[in-house]
Amino acid sequence: MKSVNLFGIAGLVLGFATLAFAQAPAVELKVGDKAPNFKLQASDGKTYNLADFAGKKAVVVAWFPAAFTKGCTVECKNLAMNGDKIRQFDVAYFMASVDPIEKNTDFAKAQEADFPLLSDPGKEVATAYGVLNPRGTANRWTFYVGKDGRILAIDKTIKVDTSAEDMVAKLGELNVAKAKSN
């Protein structure tokens, strides 16, 4: 009787281990890789698809752990206060999290964000980008995607107090085109 229970427990443990590994990203994205496409709702009421920017402009996606937390609030405010500097480049930029759209919309309004916050509550895009951590939130990583859809840079050491300035410096370093004047 005991051996049957041990086999049952071993099978259960193996099943849980398989499930845990199935949720891990297959490969870690690196510079030069094709960026995973996304189609996500945003705080401005629109839905954004990475493929829509192909051949038109670079894209920056700044993943963040959770709306209304200290570091995320500082980062969002910094990006909002310095949006004019970022918009000097021909780039679409977003913050993204696995929070529901309602929470990100409220967060964007509270921080007076002048850029869209993307919501990935199903966590499929966060998983594809390799940012989903064991807590079920996104790591604070920023992806720079070229017009060709390839990853130009991945920043995993975000300083929330200077996130906008750092983004501007990275866009310049990557030789992202300047925005055309109207």
Question: What does this protein structure show overall?
Answer:
The protein is an alpha/beta fold and 182 residues long. It has a single domain, classed as 3-Layer(aba) Sandwich (Glutaredoxin), CATH 3.40.30.10. The chain is built from six helices and seven strands, in the order H-E-E-E-H-H-E-H-E-H-E-E-H. It has a seven-stranded mixed beta sheet with strand order 2-1-5-4-3-6-7, with helices on one face. A hairpin with a 4-residue loop joins strand 1 and strand 2. The longest helix is centred in the first third of the chain and has 21 residues. The chain is globular, with a radius of gyration of 19 Å. The termini are far apart.
Features of the shown structure:
18% strand; alpha/beta; 182 residues; single chain; globular; Glutaredoxin
Show the helix and strand layout.
Layout: H1 2-22, E1 39-42, E2 47-49, E3 58-63, H2 70-81, H3 83-86, E4 91-97, H4 101-111, E5 117-119, H5 124-129, E6 142-145, E7 151-155, H6 163-173
CATH topology (fold) name: Glutaredoxin
Structurally, how many domains make up the residues? 1
Strand numbers in spatial order across the main sheet? 2-1-5-4-3-6-7
Whole-Å distance between the termini?
80 Å
Assigned CATH architecture = 3-Layer(aba) Sandwich
Label the structural class: alpha/beta
Strand content: 15-25%
Q: State the major sheet.
A: 7 strands, mixed
Low-confidence stretches: 6-26
Name the average pLDDT.
88
CATH superfamily, by name, is: Glutaredoxin
What is the top-level CATH class? Alpha Beta
Shape: globular
Instruction: Report the order of strands and helices.
Output: HEEEHHEHEHEEH
Number of helices: 6
Kindly provide the radius of gyration, computed on alpha-carbon positions and rounded to a whole number of angstroms. Answer: 19 Å
Total beta strands: 7
